[in-house]
Amino acid sequence: MKPITVVRVVLFAAALTPAAALAYGFYRLYYGIDFNALTANPGDYITDQTGTWALGCLAASLSVTPLRRLTGWNEIIKARRMLGLFAFFYATLHMLTWVVFIHYFDVSFMIEDVLKRPFITVGMATFLMLLVLAITSNKFSIRKLGRKWGTLHRLAYVAAAGGTLHFWQLVKADTTEPWRWAAGFAVLFGFRVWWNYRPRLATAIPNSQRPLSTPNSQLPTSKRSQG
Fold it and tell me: What is the pLDDT of residue 217?
């Protein structure tokens, strides 16, 4: 079995585990086995868990390219799409929890909530960005969009910023965890910027270190003798 296959299987199992845990907890709650399987407030618990794992899978997806560039292991790029789709999967569960447990499918109430509460507005905008990324995460879209595909998928960094802002607006009091996510995504974005500008920096530094005047020792022999 190829190493990339092993990595993809492990990542798939790891990314699916939180969803499986939530499903098992829901089963125990529904059949009365354990009424605290999803804590005393299932809606808030599922919302927190799915939101956290949406950010986690998105961060893992954005980490693939830096890892490939630092290690030179190009095959790891095959894991990026799967992790990005898991981010969308958990974002969808996060949004459905809001639809089912908070608004009970009341469309008018949901629209009013999106328009009036900033953190809901940001969250919905982030979900729509992830939706676009998920829809275009296939070979057909890559062929159809050409170079525009890469530009479009930089939207993942905007979605990361939106998800972090949504989290920060939601917690209000203790913003430690949102700041940690912000720092992590900032490092990933900073690496991308540094890598893209690295060739320019490599040529700019030698030019800046070039001497402004030719040292006397480098003058032709005839000119040194005249001095």
Answer: 46
